[in-house]
Write a structure and sequence with these properties.
Elements lengths: L4 E5 L3 H13 L3 E5 L2 H11 L3 E5 L7 H10 L8 E5 L4 H9 L4 E4 L4 H15 L8 E3 L2 E4 L4 E4 L2 E2 L4 H12 L7 H10 L7 H14 L7 E4 L3 E4 L5
Parallel strand pairs: 1-2, 1-3, 3-4, 4-5
Antiparallel strand pairs: 6-7, 7-8, 8-9, 10-11
Helix pairs in contact: 1-5, 6-7, 6-8
Length: about 230
């Protein structure tokens, strides 16, 4: 099983540390953010498996961040557990209405938090999502986050990995640079379209001569992942 990454978003360092200690003991990898802006940057960059999101944050509230994440295609499927000191029923309902998967009221025990986290992750992970994808001797394994070519490990950067994963799960279809930016980088991130070309070049180089032909340039249209001749 792969190690799941949890983003803890809370403006109180002591609470973040307490949660991180409990989760690391339960074999989770933890990321931390003190406000919505820092959290959003980490979410786009690292794509955590689940977010623990405090209701009350400085600036943009946790509930507003949750609403934003659920509206964006690239982050809509990341499960969110709201952390709240508010026990009023209507606040809990508001949290669930914007798309939060669960809520937990402070103070809570670390054991309760880990149990709720596991339950949400179980619901959020469709069967087979961790299954390796293999095409012509090229294998991408989501559970270990590794790419191998004929059983040799390839050195693939995080963006190139996401690009390859998208291509391998969406084969034979042409995608424009703009569509790839939306799917791989997130539509709200300002990245120039030619950045896609740079990462395609890096990905082809990482794949090597035996597999670089799988990523095809379609003139005037974009790129496609295909086992068929271009």
């Amino acid at each position: 099983m792969s190690v799941k990454t949890v983003l803890i978003v809370d403006d109180e360092p002591a609470i973040r540390e307490m949660i991180a200690v409990a989760l690391e003991m339960a074999d989770y990898e933890c990321l931390e953010a003190a406000d919505a802006r820092e959290a959003h940057a980490l979410i786009i960059d690292r794509q955590p498996d689940i977010i623990l999101l405090d209701w009350m944050l400085p600036g943009t509230s946790g509930i507003e961040l949750a609403r934003r994440l659920k509206k964006e295609e690239t982050t809509a499927n990341i499960p969110i557990i709201m952390l709240t000191a508010k026990v009023e029923e209507d606040n809990k309902i508001r949290g669930l209405e914007v798309g939060a998967d669960d809520y937990i009221t402070k103070p809570f025990s670390p054991r309760e938090l880990v149990a709720r986290l596991k339950a949400v992750l179980r619901r959020a992970t469709p069967p087979g999502i961790d299954a390796p994808i293999e095409v012509d001797g090229l294998t991408l394994d989501p559970s270990s986050h590794r790419v191998t070519a004929n059983d040799s490990f390839l050195s693939v950067g995080p963006t190139e990995y996401r690009l390859l994963q998208f291509f391998m799960t969406h084969q034979e279809r042409v995608y424009t640079r703009s569509q790839l930016l939306d799917q791989v980088w997130g539509g709200n991130v300002y990245v120039e379209e030619r950045t896609v070309d740079v990462h395609i070049r890096r990905l082809r180089k990482a794949l090597g001569a035996r597999h670089d032909h799988l990523i095809q340039t379609v003139r005037g249209a974009g790129y496609r992942f295909s086992t068929q001749p271009a």
